[in-house]
Request: fold
Amino acid sequence: MNWLIENEALLRLAAFAGLLLLLLTWQRAAPARGDSTLARRQGVNIGLVVIDTLILRLAFPVLAVGLALHLNARDDGLFNRIDWPLWLAIPVAVLILDLAVYWQHRLMHSIPLLWRLHRVHHSDTGFDVTTGVRFHPFEIAVSMAIKLGLVWVLGPHPAAVVIFELLLSLGSLFTHTDVALPKRIDRALRWALVTPSMHRIHHSVRREETDSNFGFHLSVWDRLFRSYRDSPALPETTMPIGLDTFRQPGDQTLVSLLRQPFLPRSKLNSAQKNQ
Reply:
């Protein structure tokens, strides 16, 4: 357990790079849609994750695992006031963190200011593993602030935070991969986990489909809170991906994505009429 915590950064980097390479290979060998062949948009998405990582390191003196270590050493936080075994405390903490991310995701869609940040992710007109790292730096900062606040209140064991952070980054890669599992396997997995086909619905251009399937890892939250959608209106292999707006090549450059949340509403309305 101590090894997991002490080597958290290296472990996360190695797992992320290894899974990214594996999924890039898989989607190129057996693409569901062919979006993974668009190298230019992949490069822009990777550029965003590099910027996001740099900003996190510069803007936050301590990240989630570091804060959990600090709280654990001082016995601060709700979990440190409950006398229970680690085999129970760690899974419960991971579940609570996952539930929090589900609701954070729903709020990103329902609060206009947050949607301005989150729509950078949804404005991708393709769907492949690199979409899983396409987030505006300000959204990443907001997400980290929320996560730090939750860790501060809960005081979970640092190992739980390491496990959750691993699941969050690796799960985002898997659920955005440009593949479709065999239907029988996909249906079986969906009772517990979010699959690429399930999450692809969330990236449909149809707003009622975009506002569904918010889960990152566990499909139970969507079923429990009535946001689960079984299938899209159009075939997942050909349905339009993205938003009604921001569909032109000029909207998809790295600079345009960084500027997008700050565009005045008048320009958004004008762009929508011209597309």
